[in-house]
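Budget justification, computational time. The allocation requested in the original proposal was used primarily to generate structure tokens for proteins on the priority list. As evidence of use, we reproduce two of the resulting records. The first is shown immediately below.
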Amino acid sequence: MMRVGLGHDTHRLAEGRPLLLGGVRVEHPRGLVGHSDADVVLHALTDALLGAAGLGDIGDAFPDTDPAWQGADSRLFLRDALQRLNRAGWAVVNVDVIVFAQEPKLGPLKASIRRSLAGLLGLPEGAVNVKAKTGERVGHIGRAEAIACQAVALLKPA
């Protein structure tokens, strides 16, 4: 039996914050705002993994009302979710993510994000896919007010 999970996250951009996407530091004058480091890629992927295993969502596991997660490195969330699903008897087969950002241009960064995610998940790079889309200057993504991510994960019994 296989299981699939879908994750989504959106954070607004603001001056004076670092921009982290998939565990990769991106040079940009604005970064994402959130309770943790606001890495939308890792948040969406964590949600996809937890959802596929039937283990709730990132808000259940790491509530933004808990001061322990203030400024937290989102790689911790992904690692913890991976451990939870492994304990529940699941293993990741592959993941696919789409990052929605008008700016910065993500084409040159996709390979770095892919390598980072593969390393964090312990998967070969061929089992991780990263796509980037602009907002076509429409809505909060298109006006470069925010960055969003959708992620899907496929699990198999361990």
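The second record produced under the same allocation is shown here.
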Amino acid sequence: MHHSTHDLLSPVPGIARQLHSFHFGPRGAGKVYIQASLHADELPGMLVAWHLKQRLADMEQQGRLRKEVILVPVANPVGLEQVLMYIPLGRYEMESGQNFNRLFVDLSLQVGDDIADRLNDDPAHNIALVRQSLRAALEAQVAGTQLQSQRLTLQRLACDADMVLDLHCDFESVEHLYTTPEAWKKVEPLSRYLGAQASLLATDSGGQSFDECFTLVWWQLQERFGHRFNLPMGSFSVTLELRGQGDVNHALASRDCQALINYLIHFGAISGDISIPPQLLYPATPLAAVEPVATPVGGLLVFCTQPGEYVEAGQLIAEVIDPIGDGVTPIHTLNAGLLYARSLRRMATAGMVIAHVAGTEAYRSGYLLSP
């Protein structure tokens, strides 16, 4: 194992923060990148990464690693120390108000212009060319803030990976994941090993999130050059949502760690017997088919349904109670689907999204992510 330390831009004199990456296995034979807690108040993935670090170290000593695996167990040191009156605030940077998992730099046009005259009919050549150009473009970027520095460091670590896994969680939820329709065939075994109860697919969800900042480069290059050159998708990415924020315990983390190892064996990054993936719990559905269920009024939020329940169109899922005027507002779904996540808050404000339901028919467009 090789441990690397990456210094971030200091916002003021006297303050220093670093990102730490752990590198396992041989270089040059393919690369897997895994990070945790980019939203710094989402900690289940950090514990999974800790378990995975111990297992990877053992398997490296046993000579079982066929590809390089890079692990970043703490992907957001900036957000990790944002604690206000005992409340962690790790989703948004307090200085800018920006979501830590949005606005990663898009270099698709720059890379395309750089490689346009050097592509040929050899897919291996084209993949290597894109990766070389993307690495150079990222190295040439100059960060002006600590947040930009953190984003660029993470992108530079992952830009040439065959697979990118970003470990998150929701507020209260069952296991689910996000990936692209183009990658679903490769990702389906991971969904099965993990026991994901929803798998949500979108090519471009609109926020330039960490997972999509890689896949969109390849997709846009294919759109631009695919009719003339053999240019495969050189990378695929998955955001894994490991249940809810409170689900931080060794039993779940050990189980999720084993699921990732099973998938890495299946993918060929680790040698070993391939275990048959369990049955897919719920079919993959478009992210555009997800219904964000909102409340029109504020008040005390009382749920009638649990994450993991299948709900019918028009079903009552919660009540919002006015403890002063005694009004009770029922909240119903519009569409049928799996209620996979719900709010952790129990005092709702008017217009607040309280739950997400994975339907089957796409009906939304544009920006598809939570704020």
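A brief technical remark on that second record: DSSP finds eight helices and 20 strands in the chain.
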